[in-house]
Every structure is written in structure tokens, then in C-alpha cells.
Amino acid sequence: MPHTPALLVIDMQNATVGIAHRPTETVAVIAGLRDRARAAGVPVVTVRQRGEGMVPGTEGWRVVPELAPREGEPVVDKTTPDSFLDTDLAEILRAHGVTEVIVTGFATEVCVDTTARQALSRGYDLVVVADGHTTSRRSAADAGGLMPADRSIAQYNTVYGMIGWPGRSIRVRAAADVDFAAPEEARGVTPA
């Protein structure tokens, strides 16, 4: 099966971006990557969370304008941190012949991580966009035991750079270094 990536933009909605750490920078990084994906013919799948404070049709539920999907682009609505659970994401990816997911969005420790690991378990290669995911803003007083946002993002990038998954390619790349090429091609190795 030929290498075919898809870009996932997870939960970049008004309500989540409103509480996000480095929201302007993260939205800009994802928007730039999304534009490059579109230009390369790579499918862009927008994932939206539904639930408390994220009621369909409300302002908080809407995807931020900078990342709004184009007409005809796939949109997946979910009710759990897992973008695959009880959604049509797997069918959308299968219809596009996708073999690798490129993960961006909110929140690093919850929906981004859960979806990334589910993608690996479902047979997809994975690219974690190091500067393309974020988490909630935190102060020392209200963190509730969570590590500061910058450290949490860095930890997840490090973990994905270290873990192995038999039969899967896992890459952590800055958005500027995402090349949409097959992992072997990205390393300069000619596939067998």
C-alpha cells in the first residue's frame, strides 16, 4: 500500500483555543501546515469535540476561523478524547487510503495523545507535530498537580520520540520539517 498521510486538526475550537497555552502561535503553526497539506493534496480532517460548553451550533463549539474546514473537507464530531471512538474517522481515512496520520490540536495530554495512540493501535504510522499541539494555560496556583504547559508539551514530544511500536513509524517533527513523504523517503532511504 503506498504511503498516504492525512493531517488531523483536533479540537481547535473557540472554547478550547480560548483556554489554550500559546493559542496564537499554535493556530498559526497548524494553519501553515494545513495550507501545505492542501497544496500537496494531503487530506485535512477537522475533528470537533461535543459536550459541556461545546454544544453544536454555539460559538464555543465552532472551529476557530483560521482553521475552519473548507467545504467538502471531512469533519468528525466526537464526544470522547478518542477521535476514532463512535465516529467515522476510520472510514474517512480508509476512503482516502491513509497509512499515516499527522496529529495536531488540543489538548496534548488528552485528545491529542489518545488519538495518536489509537491511530498506532489501528495500524497507522504517526507524525506528532511538536509545535502543532497545545494544552491549557496553567498557573502554579491552579494547576492542580499538573506540570506547566511548556513542560507538558515537551514531555509528550519526548515520549513520542522514544516509544517504539512494532511495525509502525513514529516521528516527532516541527511543522516546518513535516515533508509528507514516506518515513523511509524522509530519512533518505529508498523503500525496498
UniProtKB/TrEMBL annotation:
GO terms for molecular function: hydrolase activity. It holds the Pfam family Isochorismatase. InterPro entries: Isochorismatase-like_dom, Isochorismatase-like_hydrls, Isochorismatase-like_sf. Keywords: Hydrolase. Residues 6-142 form the Isochorismatase-like domain. It comes from the Bacteria. PANTHER family: PEROXYUREIDOACRYLATE/UREIDOACRYLATE AMIDOHYDROLASE-RELATED (PTHR43540). This is Cysteine hydrolase family protein. It comes from Streptomyces marokkonensis.
